[in-house]
Design goal:
This protein is mainly beta. The protein is built from two helices and 13 strands, in the order αββαβββββββββββ.
Length: 163
């Protein structure tokens, strides 16, 4: 059985109603949010800014559009199902940040990028490796910033035991 974050509530309810079974679920969050994570990506008309213990990506002030492409993250699981994508951005009036993702089972041969995600969207991506990109647009006086991006994934099975 493939477990998604949307059916965890149903599983928890089932455990309360039928306590003789144990369900083991492992949930992982991959989060790009600091100097080390952002340093591994590729910048086009964007830059990494260090702010104390965190870092963020912003559009260069001399351009109206740019992008940041993350490194390819290895989940360690062939055909991994990726769940929700979450992110934190600052988009002043007249600016935007669009997040897209792609996945594949072999590094260097990921598929095409998805359509744009909104915060907490299901990614519907499957593959051992995941990569995302942020497309930033701004104006001469308004610059968007990307604070972090996170993607959830879970193990693809549950184990049930009788006590």
């Amino acid at each position: 059985m493939i477990i998604t974050t949307k059916n965890i509530t149903q599983l928890q309810k089932g455990l309360r109603e039928n306590p003789i079974h144990y369900v083991f679920i492992v949930n992982y969050l991959t989060k790009w949010d600091d100097d080390v994570d952002f340093d591994k990506g590729t910048y086009t008309n964007t830059e990494r800014v260090n702010s104390g213990t965190t870092a963020y990506v912003r559009l260069l002030a001399v351009t109206n559009s740019g992008e940041y492409i993350s490194n390819e993250y290895n989940s360690g699981n062939l055909s991994q199902q990726w769940e929700e994508i979450n992110y934190s951005v600052s988009t002043p009036t007249g600016t935007a940040i669009i997040i897209r993702g792609r996945a594949g089972n072999y590094t260097g041969s990921l598929g095409s990028y998805s359509s744009a995600y909104t915060n907490n969207d299901e990614t519907n991506l499957i593959g051992q490796y995941i990569q995302w990109k942020a497309e930033l647009t701004g104006t001469a006086v308004a610059i968007p910033t990307l604070d972090w991006v996170g993607m959830n994934y879970m193990t693809n099975s549950i184990t049930e035991k009788n006590p």
